TrEMBL record:
Function description: Catalyzes amidations at positions B, D, E, and G on adenosylcobyrinic A,C-diamide. NH(2) groups are provided by glutamine, and one molecule of ATP is hydrogenolyzed for each amidation.
Organism placement in taxonomy: Bacteria, Bacillati, Bacillota, Bacilli, Bacillales
Protein name: Cobyric acid synthase
GO terms of biological process kind: cobalamin biosynthetic process
UniProt keyword annotation of Nuclease present: no
Species the sequence originates in: Paenibacillus baekrokdamisoli
Length: 623
């Protein structure tokens, strides 16, 4: 490609839909990857997102999961400019409002609409302007439908955002639902004339069958609207990219339920049950299990669905207290306790982990009206919901009894609960099992899949002196080593002393505390780094059958997931696997597969012409 002069402001294109869950996020991700493959510097943007699946940026800020995924498709670091406003539903008609990655507060829908939205425009426009100055192309995503008459006066995410960005709009419709022509024409009819003029064409998504049988309808649609059908995209099976909202999850659950009976009876497949909490969040934690060919994942909402699972996962929750009360009222809590006592394998992630303790305390009523709620009392810790939320990217190691060795892990934390142990020394079965360190500068755009060397991690886990372990955690940076030796927290030293008092060194190693070190890096380039001391996190029973952690993404760590599943396989009399799915490699393949699929069925050249970039060369090629 020949070089060209930089654009003053990025060109834009916007993906809107006739309804929720028509495929806007996936089409946006496809365009992001396509333009990136063609050599452009591309960024995603969604002014306001509502989702219980969030993504933590490199600097510890929270944005919508879809924009994080789309940034990954672009091969760039996600920032809060890509999703300046995030709404996380907490209970009926109340959401936590997050602005540029940090909580603003909890607002009822009417209060948010009347008092907060009026102040949102400058926040959104500044974020969009920042991206347009930094990138060649910005691909915007809308929300729901642009034709919601009762919401249009306060719109900041659909046609008003398109106007601010001067973006042509592609309207996406889901033919799998039926009524695709009515949904497209009806949406156009409800738009204002200037809004209708912005629509440059349609993409009919999730098509199944012979497209020639659709041709007469396509011809009618183009004649009726005067706008082109840019593509008919066939349904893409098992894409392997995460869903974002509960509607997508419920669709997946319906699909899984239809095959559950047959799959549960499959003696060669592991059966893993996930409790479908009413306020389930970050359910993408389960996605790697769904990618394993010999694992069947299903969601449980009632006792009748329990079956005979090989493991049960209690996932994250946006309202841990209410979901805990739901489990008790439904009888699932009692069933879970029986399963635990029978030796069943149980994993708790974030909100699920919080339920494992003795009490959940909410003095500020951060989560609910309940000041104190009794937990499952499996481990001697209390959870207190604080005023401030912790959002961090972290990495470290995990060592569980029953698994061979120590495993490097990485992920992110998003929680307001703070754990305090009552009797760590005296309660042998309740010692934390993870060793983590916060890393905000770990992202390598050339290779996101790099993992710490497992042999090195195993060597570190074998050390009796935790201070030495801290020194070894980052051998590549000698200056960091010196800082680590100087900075241990006194409370952590006490915890380490408690551990070394144990006479059984094997038991001690199986229940290592998590040692957390935060690397604060304001620029993401290795400069201005601040190292905190190590802290403990997570819990595990003495036999490693029950464990919990705040670490979202724990099951995305391939080596740990393989070891955990292999233990379940051997329990079932199945052969352990030597290799499992490599999640990051599979994800990159999914992005490429998606881009190839959309290139095949969508007129990308026409979209480029509408954007005003035509056949121009890219601004910069990646080395």
């Amino acid at each position: 490609m020949r070089e060209r002069e930089p654009l003053k402001l990025a060109r834009t294109i916007m993906v809107q839909g006739t309804a929720s869950d028509v495929g806007k996020s996936v089409i946006t991700a496809a365009l992001c990857r396509i333009f990136t493959e063609d050599g452009w510097r591309v960024a995603p943007f969604k002014s306001q997102n509502m989702s219980l699946n969030s993504y933590v940026t490199w600097d510890g800020k929270e944005i919508g999961r879809a924009q994080g995924m789309q940034a990954d498709a672009c091969g760039i670091l996600a920032t809060t400019d890509m999703n300046p406003i995030l709404l996380k539903p907490k209970k009926d008609m109340v959401s936590q409002v997050i602005v540029h990655g940090k909580p603003l507060g909890d607002f009822a829908a009417r209060v948010y609409r009347e008092e907060v939205l009026s102040k949102a425009e400058p926040i959104v426009r500044q974020a969009l302007d920042n991206l347009r100055k930094e990138y060649d192309i910005v691909v915007l995503e809308g929300a729901g439908s642009p034709a919601e008459i009762n919401l249009k006066s306060r719109d900041i995410v659909n046609m008003k955002a398109a106007k601010w960005a001067d973006a042509p709009v592609i309207l996406v419709a889901d033919i799998d639902r039926g009524g695709v022509f009515a949904s497209i024409v009806g949406t156009l009819e409800l738009l204002e004339p200037d809004e209708r003029a912005r629509v440059c064409g349609f993409i009919i998504n999730k098509f199944r069958g012979d497209v020639s049988l659709l041709q007469s309808g396509l011809d009618w649609l183009e004649e009726r609207t005067g706008k082109p059908v840019l593509g008919v995209v066939p349904h893409l099976h098992e894409l392997g990219l995460e869903d974002e909202d509960s509607l997508s999850l419920d669709v997946a659950i319906q699909k899984l339920a239809a095959e559950s009976l047959a799959e549960q009876s499959n003696a060669k497949k592991l059966d893993i049950a996930v409790l479908r909490l009413p306020h389930i969040s970050n359910f993408t934690d389960i996605d790697p299990l769904r990618s394993e060919p010999d694992v069947h994942v299903r969601f449980i909402t009632s006792l009748q669905q329990w079956g005979k699972p090989d493991a049960v996962i209690v996932p994250g929750s946006k309202n841990t207290v209410d979901d805990l009360l739901y489990l008790r009222a439904s009888g699932l809590a009692e069933k879970l306790e029986q399963y635990r006592l029978s030796g069943g394998d149980i994993a708790g992630i974030c909100g699920g982990y919080e339920m494992f303790g003795s009490k959940l305390l909410d003095p500020l009523h951060t989560e609910s009206d309940q000041g104190e709620t009794e937990g499952f009392n499996w481990f001697p810790f209390e959870v207190t919901f604080a005023a401030e939320k912790r959002t961090e990217r972290v990495e470290g190691t995990i060592q569980l009894a029953g698994l061979d060795g120590s495993f490097a892990v990485e992920g992110y934390e998003i929680h307001m609960g703070e754990v305090s142990w009552q009797d760590r020394k005296g309660h042998e079965a309740g010692n934390p099992s993870f060793v983590l360190e916060g890393v905000l500068d770990q992202f390598d755009e050339s290779d996101q899949a790099d993992q710490p060397d497992q042999a090195d991690q195993a060597d570190q886990a074998d050390q009796a002196d935790q201070a030495d372990q801290a020194d070894q955690a980052d051998q590549a940076d000698q200056a960091d080593q010196a800082d680590q030796a100087d900075q241990p927290d006194q409370a952590d030293q006490t915890d380490r002393t408690d551990q070394t008092d144990q006479t059984d060194q094997t038991d001690q190693a199986a229940r290592l505390p998590l040692l957390l070190r935060n690397k604060r890096n304001a620029h993401g380039d290795g400069s201005e780094q601040h190292l905190d001391s190590y802290i403990a996190e997570g819990c595990a029973s003495e036999d490693g059958r029950v464990w919990g952690t705040f670490l979202h993404g724990i099951l995305h760590n391939d080596d740990f997931r393989l070891a955990w599943l292999n233990r379940l396989r051997m329990d079932r009399g199945l052969e352990p696997l030597l290799e499992g799915v490599r999640v990051q490699e599979q994800r990159e393949q999914s992005f490429s597969r998606l881009a190839d699929h959309v290139r095949t069925y969508v007129n990308i050249d026409r979209i480029k012409q509408v954007m005003g970039i035509g056949e121009q060369a890219c601004l910069s090629r990646k080395d």
